Structure formats: structure tokens, C-alpha cells
Amino acid sequence: MSIWRGQKKLVLASQSRARRMLLENAGLDFEALPADIDERAVQKSSGRTAPAEIASLLACEKALFVSRQKPGQFVIGADQTLALGPRMFSKPAGRAQAAEQLGLLAGQVHELHSAVAVARDGKILFSDVSVARMAMRALTENQLDAYLDKAGDAVTTSVGAYQLEGLGVHLFERIEGDHFTILGMPLLSLLAFLRSEQLLAV
Predict the structure, then answer these.
(1) What pTM value is reported for the model?
(2) What share of the chain is helix, strand, coil (3-state, %, to 5)?
């Protein structure tokens, strides 16, 4: 039984498996509808360069885009950026780019900024950004090759070329931040907002 109490179905503006899993595990009944926006164009036209601001902007834009197609419904948008100092990373295009990114991240501490936004009828009602600091182990070339061989095409599906909930856990020696932020959504603050709107039974 769903704990959702909204009159209309909740919408997730994403097809991300990890984000769908987070909402499903929290007992929410929702539909997933990807936001067809050009993220790089939105980022460029905004002039924003701070990773947290970019994540927030894209989460809001995704939520707004889908909310215009779903009148009266609460729409969740989410985005995540990865930064090593001033340098931001995108999803690698293939194994070679994944190896290059992991080579740069190895032995360093990088930051994941995860943003969430809720929109309804083309208006943002809530947004939040959280950060996790990820200390990656120093990796030998053989260790990196072994990881890439085992992970396969999954390295191209996330920023940083890893999924912490899977094989990516072997790459790290220390993590500061909550599990939900790492998976791509500050879930606790989202649930607090939905609760404040009397939309959850729990």
C-alpha cells in the first residue's frame, strides 16, 4: 500500500534506476517521465559554474519541464554533479574516457552535489542540494583495468564511472555524506517537504 496521499499521482522527471529505487524503497507510488532538456545548453546559457548551483538549476529545469505536461501533479526533478576542485566531470562516453576520469580521481577527494526540486504547474515549490565527499583509493593500472573489465558498460551510466552500490565501492577508502546523496537525491529533505504538504501518510 502506497503512503502517497496526493489527489494525483506523483511524478519523477527521470528514468534513473537509482532514483526510481530510492522512491520505490520509500514506499512512494509514482510514474517516471524523463525531462527532454538539453542539460549542457541550459548550463551554458545560465552562466553558472559552481557545481552545486548547476545541479540545482538542472533539477529545477527538469521538474518544470515535466510539470508543464502534468497539470496539478507534484513533479520531482533531480540532478547530480561531480567536481574535483574546479573541474567538473560528465558521464564518460566509453571505456577510454572512464579510465581517464578514474585516473584523475584516484588518490583524490572529489565532491558529489545532489539536487532535488519539486514543481507543480510550472512553479518550483521546493529545492535542496546536498554534498558528499568521496576519497578514492590510489589505484594501480592493473587494478583500474580489472575494475573496468568487471564493470563493463555500467561505467558509462553515471558521472565518475562508478556506482557505489555496486562494484564502485571497491574504489573508495573514505566517504563523508549520506547514502541518498551519493545515489543522486537528497531524499530526507524531499520527504520532509512532502510531509509538510500533507502528502505522506507516514
Answers:
(1) 0.91
(2) 40, 25, 35
Q: If you average pLDDT over residues 19-40, what whole number do you get? A: 93
pLDDT of the residue at 68? 96
Identity of the amino acid at 48: R
pLDDT value at position 157? 87
32's enclosing H/E stretch is strand 30-32
- What the block records as the C-alpha cell of 159 is 558521472
Question: Nearest-CA neighbor of 129 among 110, 118, 111, 115?
Answer: 115
Q: What residue has cell string 553558472?
A: 48
Per residue in 93-116, pLDDT tens? Answer: 999 999 999 999 999 999 999 999
**Direct distance between the N- and C-terminal alpha carbons of the chain, in angstroms, rounded to an integer:** 12
Q: Which listed residue (29, 38, 79, 149) is catalytic? A: 79
Q: Is 79 a catalytic residue?
A: yes
- Provide the sign of the torsion angle of the four alpha carbons 155, 157, 158, 162, taken in this order: negative
Within 8 A by CB and 6+ apart from 14, the residues are 20, 32, 34, 35, 62, 76, 77, 78
Q: Can you tell me the distance from the alpha carbon of 137 to that of 135, in angstroms, rounded to the nearest whole number? A: 7
For the segment 85-98, the average pLDDT, to the nearest whole number, is: 92
Structural contact between residues 77 and 116, judged by C-beta atoms closer than 8 angstroms: yes
